[in-house]
């Protein structure tokens, strides 16, 4: 999902996304759930003015998305080493 899609999720869609991520069968849902948690943190941060929350979230994702990808790549490498 894109940052805009994450920010626009309804409460029911947020719950459904979190449920899919907890099942663990779908890596994309897990990543989207991490991004949702990041948005919720920004959304609930009283130190960030409402009009700057979207920009703050998009800036945060510039760091979060590469870190998630690095973590997954590392985990995949570890798993393939264990399976040999």
Kindly describe this structure:
This protein is mostly helical and 84 residues long. Helices cover 77% and strands 0% of the residues. The chain contains four helices and no strands. It has helices at 3-7, 11-23, 27-43, 53-82. The longest helix has 30 residues, at 53-82.
Report the biggest beta sheet as strand number plus sense, adding barrel if it closes. Answer: none
Q: What is the average of the pLDDT values?
A: 86
Unreliable runs: none
What is the CA-based Rg, rounded? Answer: 15 Å
Helix count, DSSP H or I runs of 4 or more residues? 4
Total domain count: 1
Describe how the helices and strands are arranged:
Blueprint: H1 3-7, H2 11-23, H3 27-43, H4 53-82
Helix pairs in contact: 2-3, 3-4
Could you give a short description of this structure?
By secondary structure, this protein is mainly α. It has one domain (3-82). It contains four helices and no strands.
Which descriptors apply to this entry?
single chain; 77% helix; mainly alpha; 4 helices; 84 residues
